TrEMBL record:
Function statement: Ethanolamine phosphate transferase involved in glycosylphosphatidylinositol-anchor biosynthesis. Transfers ethanolamine phosphate to the GPI second mannose.
Compartment(s) where it occurs, according to its Swiss-Prot or TrEMBL record: Endoplasmic reticulum membrane
Protein family per UniProt: Belongs to the PIGG/PIGN/PIGO family. PIGG subfamily.
UniProt xrefs under InterPro entries: Alkaline_phosphatase_core_sf, Phosphodiest/P_Trfase, PIG-G_N, PIGG/GPI7, PIGG/GPI7_C
Chief localisation class: endoplasmic reticulum
Source taxonomy: Eukaryota, Fungi, Dikarya, Ascomycota, Pezizomycotina
Pathway annotation: Glycolipid biosynthesis; glycosylphosphatidylinositol-anchor biosynthesis
Alphabetized GO MF terms: CP2 mannose-ethanolamine phosphotransferase activity
Gene from which the chain derives: LAS21_1
Short name of any one Pfam family annotated for the protein: Phosphodiest
Name listed for the protein in its UniProt record: GPI ethanolamine phosphate transferase 2
Highest rank taxon of the organism: Eukaryota
Membrane topology reported for the UniProt record: Multi-pass membrane protein
Species this protein is from: Orbilia brochopaga
Keywords associated with the record: Endoplasmic reticulum, Glycoprotein, GPI-anchor biosynthesis, Membrane, Transferase, Transmembrane, Transmembrane helix
């Protein structure tokens, strides 16, 4: 065998290179998009002495309701009854605003205020509340234009606005956007400012950003019982603001805009590109708009999935707002003025508006394609037929026409063509750096795999072949978008195939095969527990459809799951010779507190999951702070860990016969992960522990089968708990357990563990299975050795070290092969239609698997548990 120090060195160097490769590729693949600096002036778009089209409104109320999907406002089953009455009366003009992926708050605010299309890297910055690199302080937007004109802005709601627009607002009250467990206070903190501010006349633009509806979606989905009451509450705010505009003299020239930054999918998440996520409601309201005589009906039937009324781009909001307010269009705007509002001006001003929009977009075309200036200088159509040639020809025709309607139509056509060219232009990828990153990753694969390919355990060729078949077939999947979207199917089939192999192995050993059949049955059950992926994300499943209809069954399963946790932990914590009471005293509090915490959270968020006879008790117990309840769970678990450490350091065994030294830590981890999981997913953790017990009883005689089981089940468990390769599947509902305020150092790990609870449990379970295998190996070696053999303990200790190295090498090899495959797919398919909706999110998830799960959980936690058993 290679010397251990060389293997450690290769392992460390390979993982370091893998992280370098991941970061280099990310920098090349997710570049910041360049923008034109400075603020636009009217003189930029108008000839000397030409006045811009006059303003139609003096003040603005911009009400953004997070995750306001189009059907929430415009559909039949809506709580926005007053808003719909305004649409019917003609004083409100409705649209469906298309939100391009990623459908996350920060990039959508950028699109709404600048008219540009933010880069995908903004998705990462969206989760970094303390980040300041994403500020719009140096980028043109309608808030900066209002501020530049000497007017005052105020803001209440999501503090993302304060980060994006530092120093812009005269008065603010920001709220943290990621505290998704809060449905009420986060909105009450906004609403309490509305009535007093409507009486004030010292502001010119008021921004209200409500978060409660989005939080309800994350916690309980769009069909939650909380959804209609929240919509009715928001409709009441709209009524309050609109009636103030009608009655208050200082608000008579106010434009009221209701908008959603994005929608949500059937699971309540967002971030991806499904119709529900990209369809946001947009309504312009003012008594002045009645003169447009648009005659809209409400509620309305969609012409396509979630498409109500006219569909416009979200970027169209910025040029429309600035024009209505008489301000210059932001420099980096890709949007089009919404021509429904053109009748508010006379014919000459309508031409000015369309030509101004066209002139602004032509500047961006010139910045992106310098040759376009030369085509414009030619002064006439050249007849060549190229895309830019045709664009220049439209411009020449528009400027030469003397017919106002024709001139306006040509400028509008020019603007539309510019928008099409600019929005479809490929990102300027750094392909050289991408190739370098892939090469570095390939070197890491070589460092990982060389050791165990050359020095591998003899007689395990079949398992080695299975490992490479698993690794390479999975890597090959990354080239196809449909396979990436439905990756869970691959792992469900792989795990089932592995279960069949285990069944055959059992029969060959003379066993009945019952253990393998039970595992296969459990796999089939958890496969139906949470429908995930893209094709079946909203389909009926056990967690979202069956269990809410049978809450009694849910709590029976939850009770058995927590009872199993109690008995396991109690057995693990009982020291030799100690009383039964001690084990009960230590294990009972964290288990009971965790279950009561879940009951309280259900009483607050999902009462349909609570049987009627438990509801009164749950509601009364929920009066206690859920933050304090979660903190108690973590405190009791910490005390159990401290107890174990103290007992180990004093040399006292803390386990009953037959219970390994790692088992107590695994049992504590199970309770913690149950606390971090959704209520409906807690039974799955119980199923996983049953599967681990069955696998341990199979008594594997080599390490590779254990590691193959681990690879398959880590990924199966990730998808079984409801995750997918879509950003919208990221569960934030348990990120704040025990945390009263936003703190990225706490929220980041809590969010990760809530979403990777299954893989984390299987990492711990893998170490348990390895410990059992090592113990059997140790007993065999001691049985074979003579009573006077003094080297047995050293041999056993070397075997433990070799087992961890083998485990780390194989896990690292798979992760490196998978990461390089994802990088390769992203590079090859960088011009693919789905690069930003499928492959880019997959790369972000691959980064999380590599940087967080592999390094911290698989290698870090795995090492801590493995050598704890020494």
């Amino acid at each position: 065998m290679l010397h251990a120090s060389i293997r450690w060195l290769r392992l460390a160097a390979g993982n370091l290179l893998l992280i370098v490769a991941v970061l280099v590729f990310a920098r090349a693949f997710f570049p910041y998009k360049p923008f034109l600096p400075g603020l636009a002036q009217h003189a930029d778009y108008h000839a000397a002495g030409e006045a811009p089209a006059p303003a139609r409104f003096e003040k603005l109320v911009f009400m953004l309701i997070d995750a306001l999907r189009s059907d929430f406002v415009f559909g039949d089953n809506s709580g926005f009854e007053f808003t719909q009455s305004l649409i019917r009366s003609g004083v409100a003009v409705p649209f469906t605003a298309y939100a391009t992926s990623p459908t996350i708050t920060m990039p959508k605010i950028k699109a709404l205020t600048t008219g540009s299309i933010p880069g995908f890297l903004d998705l990462i910055l969206n989760f970094a509340e303390s980040d300041t690199t994403s500020t719009l302080a140096t980028q043109d937007n309608w808030l900066a234009q209002i501020k530049q004109s000497g007017k005052n802005l105020i803001m209440f709601g999501d503090d993302t606005w304060l980060k994006l627009f530092p120093g812009v607002f005269t008065r603010t009250d920001g709220t943290v956007s990621f505290y998704v467990s809060d449905f009420t206070e986060v909105d009450n903190n906004v609403t309490r400012h509305v009535a007093p501010e409507l009486k004030q006349s010292d502001w010119d633009a008021m921004i209200l950003h409500y978060l409660g509806l989005d939080h309800i979606g994350h916690k309980t989905g769009p069909r939650s019982a909380h959804m209609i009451p929240k919509q009715t509450e928001m409709d009441g705010i709209i009524k309050q603001v609109y009636e103030a505009i009608e009655t208050e003299e200082h608000l008579k020239d106010t434009l009221f805009v209701l908008v959603g930054d994005h929608g949500m999918n059937d699971g309540g998440g967002h971030g991806g590109s499904s119709a529900g996520e990209t369809s946001a409601a947009l309504v312009f309201m003012s008594p002045k708009l009645k003169t447009l005589n648009l005659g809209r009906t409400a509620p309305e039937q969609p012409t396509d999935e979630f498409r109500y009324y006219r569909l416009i781009e979200q970027s169209d909001v910025a040029p429309t707002l600035t024009t209505l307010l008489g301000l210059p269009i932001p420099k980096n705007n890709l949007g089009l003025f919404v021509d429904d509002f053109l009748p508010l001006w006379n014919a000459d001003d309508q031409v000015k508006i369309t030509s101004t929009n066209a002139r602004e977009l032509s500047r961006l075309i010139s910045a992106s394609y310098p040759e376009f200036d030369g085509l414009l200088a030619e002064g006439a159509c050249n007849g060549k037929g190229g895309q830019l040639d045709n664009l220049a020809c439209i411009w020449h025709s528009g400027t030469a026409s003397s017919i106002l309607s024709e001139k306006m139509n040509l400028f509008a056509m020019f603007s539309s063509e510019c928008q099409s060219i600019l929005t479809s232009a490929a990102t300027n990828y750094d392909t050289d750096s991408m190739l370098i990153a892939i090469s570095i990753g390939a070197v890491a694969i070589g460092l990982f795999s060389t050791v165990w390919l050359v020095e591998g355990v003899a007689g395990l060729a079949f398992y080695k072949l299975l490992f490479w078949a698993l690794s390479l077939s999975y890597s090959g999947m990354m080239i196809a978008s449909s396979y990436v979207e439905e990756e869970q199917q691959y792992w469900y089939w792989a795990a089932s195939a592995w279960g069949v192999i285990l069944f055959v192995r059992e029969l060959q050993r003379g066993d009945s095969g019952v253990k393998s059949i039970t595992i296969l049955a459990l796999l089939r059950t958890i496969r139906r527990w949470n429908q995930t992926g893209q094709k079946h994300a909203g389909a009926d499943d056990i967690a979202k459809t069956f269990l809410p209809e049978h809450p009694m069954l849910l709590w029976v399963l939850v009770f058995f799951a927590y009872t199993d946790m109690f008995w396991r932990l109690r057995r693990s914590l009982m020291a030799k010779g100690s009383s039964v009471a001690l084990g009960t005293f230590l294990s009972f509090p964290p288990v009971v507190c965790s279950m009561l915490f879940k009951l309280s959270m259900a009483a607050l968020d999902t009462q349909e999951l609570i049987p009627s006879f438990l509801l009164d008790f749950a509601e009364s117990f929920a009066q206690l702070s859920v933050v304090t309840q979660a903190q108690l769970v973590f405190l009791f678990l910490l005390l159990n860990i401290l107890y174990l450490v103290v007992m180990r350091n004093t040399g006292i065994s803390t386990a009953t016969p037959g219970v390994g030294r790692i088992q107590p830590f695994h049992d504590i981890l199970t309770i913690f992960l149950a606390t971090q999981s959704r209520l409906t997913n807690i039974p799955i953790l119980w199923f996983f522990n049953i599967m681990l017990l069955l696998l341990e009883n199979m008594r594997f005689d080599s390490q590779l089968p254990i590691l193959l089981t681990s690879l398959a089940m880590q990924h199966v468990s990730f998808f079984a708990l409801g995750n997918s390769n879509a950003i919208s599947s990221v569960d934030l509902s348990n990120a704040y357990n025990g945390v009263p305020n936003f703190n990225i150092a706490l929220i980041g790990p809590m969010t990760f563990l809530a979403n990777w609870a299954g893989p984390t449990l299987w990492t711990s379970g893998t170490i348990l299975l390895m410990a059992s295998w090592l113990e059997r190996t140790k007993q065999k070696q001691k049985t074979a050795a003579s009573p006077t053999d003094k080297h047995v303990d050293t041999v056993v200790q070397d075997g433990r070290l070799d087992a961890y190295l083998r485990y780390a090498e194989i896990m690292s090899t798979f992760r490196a092969v998978a990461m390089v495959a994802v990088m390769g797919a992203c590079m090859v398919l960088r011009m693919h239609l789905f690069v930003w909706t499928v492959f880019s999110p997959k790369y972000l998830f691959a980064m999380a698997w590599t940087g967080a799960h592999h390094l911290i959980i698989d290698l870090g936690l795995g090492a801590a548990l493995h050598f704890t058993g020494a």
